[in-house]
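Allow me, if you will, to draw on your knowledge of protein folds for a short while. I have a record of one protein: its chain in single-letter code and its fold written as discrete structure tokens. Could you please explain, in whatever detail you think fit, how the structure tokens follow from the sequence? The record follows directly beneath this note:
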Amino acid sequence: MRVASPKKMGLPARFFVMILRFAPARVQNRMWKWWYQKLAKANDQSEFQFMNYGFEDGNGPKLENEDEPNRMFIQLYSMNIRGVDLEGREVLEVGSGRGGGASWIAKTHSPVRLVGVDFSAEAVSHCKRWYANQTNLEFIEGNAQDLPFENECFDVVYNVESSHCYGDMSAFVEQAYRVLRTGGMFCWTDLRDADTMASLPGLFQSKGFEIVESTDVVQEVITALDQINEQKMKAIEDNVPKSVRRSFETFAGLKGTPVYEGFVSGSMAYQRILMRKP
């Protein structure tokens, strides 16, 4: 993934990006873990449950009143698993973050078990506290590139706007394939620079996956970013310490930030790829 210009970021993000440009994969993994631990520590309010860019195509799910404020974020999760039956299934989210997506899927799509795994101990701790009343939902700390599960133990694996943080994408894809049962579905959506995105279908197929559907959703992501720009700005202002506020704005994809401008110009891509383990 192309990294945004450091001059347009706050100091913590600027330092972080400079290291990522030159660091080997193992160092990148440590830096991403440090960064997300920092984000989790910066805000431990349960109202701040999502970290994604959102999605809007006019075909969103019906939501409970309590979920409406997070509609754009939830719609990204809903789009990612669209057409996949989760009821009664064992499901894994890799990169569960602050748990909002996993919580909504667990209560709406009725999997018998949904496990969210994330490499931020702080985020996992928050999730265990916030969603303790959902009996079909659990969260554990773990590495996407070395998942702490036996072979073939899940029916569905999904991953939302997380894998661009992984130092070794190939290892992650191998792990997703390993933990899926035969016939299981892998639902993936994320951003990359346009050239890297074009290479990813080949990577997924090289690891054994059959691609069922591949969809460019960048315009729908831009629409969501436009609609929730003010909401995100206010949430950051109200909940995030000033010392990391500029960095939050950058990683939230607010208007004028490099990622947002990359989506508009076409230098950044955003796709949903649905796969099956044959």
Q: What stands out?
A: The beta strands are 90-94, 113-118, 137-141, 154-160, 180-193, 210-216, 268-276. Residues 218-239 form the longest helix (22 residues). The radius of gyration is 17 Å. The domain at 48-231+258-276 is CATH 3.40.50.150 (Rossmann fold).
